[in-house]
Amino acid sequence: MRRGLSIVGLFLATLLAFPQPARADFWDWLQEFSGPGPFHANYKDAFPPNTLVTLCPGDGDVNGRPHMTFREQKGKLPCFYVDFRNLVNSPDQKGGEDNFPNQVKVTAYDFGVAFDLEHRIQVGAGLGFMHFNSQDITHLDQRVIRNRFDITLFRATAQPLQFIPVHGWKEGWKNNKYAGLLKFYVKYTVVPGDLDSSDFGVPTTTSTFHASNDVVFSRGFFVDFGELFRRR
Question: Smallest Cα–Cα separation from 84: which of 37, 39, 41, 26?
């Protein structure tokens, strides 16, 4: 019990240590780059806007998150994840104080490894790429497309529903795989190389934005379909 509480406390401390938005979308939020942003979940182009598949090694086959007792017998083996996020900024500033004049859509694909701190909390790191789809402000009927490699320096996920106690039910939702479908995440991502305003549809003569190795924080929710394959 003490170990579980200390791990939960560590996760909460980690979350509070990161920058928090003054106004943010409930489902997902990506800190602004040094140029466009902040970004929020793009419900229009995808629903749910964020999806995830987490798979963990089992006894000779692939199973999603077997019980911790089984995992401890096998040793602290890493899990593998693939996640997808769909975000958009708000140049009209209704959803955030954006400093760019045009719409920028970000589709992020990431994959990597994660380790259990406790069967409801994981930490890890990974790689991926971001797809930028921006309105060209000089030709409004055209889009500027860019694909950039990214590195997830730190990523933590928690299964919030499994922490909810249920009256008269000793385990509550702790080992309910359906309660594990919903996951809250925090992550730090770096986009290596140089970015300038032309990568987001704004001429460099209009904006002075330029950044090298931009690091951004994000937090929000995933629907993890990998939980459907875990052992009961």
Answer: 41
Chain segment 164-173, per-residue pLDDT in tens? 776 555 555 6
User: Residues 213, 190: contact at Cβ < 8 Å?
Assistant: yes
Distance CA 68, CA 162 (A): 14
> Is there a contact between 68 and 231 (Cβ–Cβ < 8 Å)?
no
* Rounded Cα distance, 101 and 103, in Å: 7
Average pLDDT estimate for 164-185: 70
DSSP 229: G
Contact, 114 vs 54, CB < 8 A? yes
Q: Where are the domains of the chain?
A: 2-105+118-229
Q: Give the residue among 74, 76, 155 at the shortest CA–CA distance from 118.
A: 76
Q: What is the spatial distance between Cα 58 and Cα 74, in angstroms, rounded to a whole number?
A: 8
* DSSP three-state, residue 171: coil
Q: Give the chain's end-to-end CA distance (angstroms, integer).
A: 21
